[in-house]
């Protein structure tokens, strides 16, 4: 019994020594005293000893006259260090050195018992205030303490590196979204322009505690702990909704009322557009108006030079009235392209798009058939941008951006 009491005394002294690492005066809170005593009394009861044995007052150990450390037989410095290094693999080198010094002259068996009890009284460092350390008694079946993640330990820096990276990535994503909105506003009067929207996505999470784990009483936890790392741009998506129709009274101004794209021959590839502002080139071919070049509509349609009137029906049939004639002559048929996934088209500029593996191959057909819209002559489709909506989105983004920048600036100040 005396030997065991000495072991208990040594154990509690060793636990007190752990708190010296924090450099603070240690106080054991009253609400944990009963838990610690219960754990020790339970150990005594297992050995058939008197469960009413009172714990000594640790604060008065230094006042005992002539107190000397107990020297146990069989002490081996190398073996003691090996035992401590094995039992405290997750501890810092400084903490292990303190334990080596504290457990000097103790036998290997005593060292193992003390360290086992130390592991039972785990102390989360992040919960230690400047003025006290709390000890929580845990079950003998609890796992040894694990290395704490960097974010859970109080640091001298205002924010850890991963928090600053979170702010930086979020600022970058919001700046990208801001650029997209500004481009929408700039093209509010561009014929056939389709606004883009930004889809945000939260970045990968760091799971510090997995849900569904079993605690030391066999109960399954329902939640875990996940730490996010900010936001990023998942995608920029084109809004293919119909814009308003504008009456121009120009015979070669066309619009598609419904689904579909005009097909344009760009020599090396076919391009697709909702813009229907066409004209006739020197060869009489119907081409898409452009400041750089005249791209021919596909299939090609040629208008005679003596044409005095051009009529284009809802089905895309192009007919002309020539000088000296009263009847209309059919010159060709404008066809439309339809994609199973128009959001997969790649923007090229000049309101032109090219197909991609995401958009799939186009289905070419007559307007008004196979799910395609009809053609309206003397009309153009305006941009589908709503300036009021874009400005409201821009204001929200800039408020968020201002808050993140302020936080980033303040976190760089050591006095923050």
Structure explained in plain terms:
This protein is an alpha+beta fold and 416 residues long. The protein has 7 helices and 20 strands. It is rod-shaped.
Give the tags.
20% strand; alpha+beta; 7 helices; 7-stranded antiparallel sheet; 416 residues; single chain; 3-stranded antiparallel sheet
Write the layout of secondary structure elements.
Blueprint: H1 2-19, H2 30-46, H3 77-87, H4 93-102, H5 108-120, H6 161-186, E1 196-202, E2 206-209, E3 225-227, E4 231-238, E5 245-247, E6 254-257, E7 261-265, E8 270-273, E9 278-280, E10 286-288, E11 295-297, E12 307-312, E13 317-322, E14 329-333, E15 336-338, E16 346-349, E17 352-354, E18 363-365, E19 374-377, E20 379-381, H7 387-411
Antiparallel strand pairs: 1-4, 2-3, 5-20, 6-19, 7-8, 7-11, 7-15, 9-10, 10-11, 12-13, 13-14, 15-18, 16-17
* SSE string, helices as H and strands as E: HHHHHHEEEEEEEEEEEEEEEEEEEEH
Shape designation? rod-shaped
Beta-strand fraction estimate:
15-25%
The tally of strands reads: 20
Unreliable parts? 1-33, 47-72, 122-159
| Largest sheet data | 7 strands, antiparallel
User: What is the helix content?
Assistant: 25-40%
* Overall residue-averaged pLDDT value: 76
Figure out the total of helices: 7
| Radius of gyration over C-alpha positions, nearest whole angstrom | 39 Å
Structural class: alpha+beta
Tell me the distance between the termini. Answer: 55 Å
């Amino acid at each position: 019994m005396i030997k065991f009491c000495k072991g208990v005394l040594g154990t509690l002294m060793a636990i007190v020594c752990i708190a010296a690492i924090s450099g603070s005066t240690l106080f054991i809170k009253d609400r944990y005293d009963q838990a610690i005593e219960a754990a020790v009394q339970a150990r005594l009861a297992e050995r058939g000893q008197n469960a009413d044995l009172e714990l000594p007052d640790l604060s008065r150990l230094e006042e005992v006259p002539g107190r000397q450390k107990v020297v146990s037989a069989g002490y081996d410095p190398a073996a003691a260090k090996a035992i401590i290094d094995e039992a405290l693999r997750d501890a810092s080198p400084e903490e292990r050195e303190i334990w080596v010094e504290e457990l000097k002259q103790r036998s290997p068996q005593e060292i193992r018992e003390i360290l086992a009890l130390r592991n039972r009284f785990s102390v989360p460092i992040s919960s230690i205030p400047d003025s006290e350390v709390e000890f929580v008694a845990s079950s003998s079946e609890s796992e040894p303490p694990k290395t704490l993640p960097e974010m859970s330990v109080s640091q001298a820096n205002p924010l850890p590196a991963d928090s600053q990276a979170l702010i930086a990535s979020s600022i970058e994503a919001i700046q990208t979204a801001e650029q997209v909105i500004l481009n929408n506003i700039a093209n509010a009067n561009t014929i056939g322009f389709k606004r883009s929207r930004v889809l945000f996505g939260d970045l990968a999470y760091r799971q510090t505690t997995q849900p569904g784990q079993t605690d030391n009483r066999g109960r399954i936890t329902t939640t875990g702990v996940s730490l996010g790392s900010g936001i990023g741009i998942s995608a920029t998506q084109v809004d293919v909704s119909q814009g308003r129709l504008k009456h121009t009274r120009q015979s070669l101004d066309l619009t598609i009322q419904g689904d579909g794209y005009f097909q344009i021959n760009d020599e090396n590839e076919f391009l697709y557009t909702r813009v229907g502002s066409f004209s006739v080139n020197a060869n009489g071919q119907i081409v898409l108006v452009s400041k750089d070049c005249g791209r021919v509509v596909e299939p090609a349609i040629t208008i005679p030079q003596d044409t005095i009137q051009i009529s284009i029906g809802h089905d895309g049939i192009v007919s002309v009235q020539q000088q000296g004639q009263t009847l209309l002559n059919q010159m060709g048929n404008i066809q439309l392209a339809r994609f199973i996934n128009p959001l997969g088209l790649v923007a090229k500029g000049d309101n032109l798009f090219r197909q991609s593996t995401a958009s799939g191959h186009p289905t070419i057909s007559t307007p008004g058939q196979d799910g395609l819209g009809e053609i309206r002559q003397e009309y153009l489709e305006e941009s589908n941008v709503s300036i009021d909506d874009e400005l409201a989105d821009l204001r929200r983004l800039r408020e968020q951006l201002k808050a993140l920048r302020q936080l980033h600036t303040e976190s760089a100040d050591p006095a923050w």
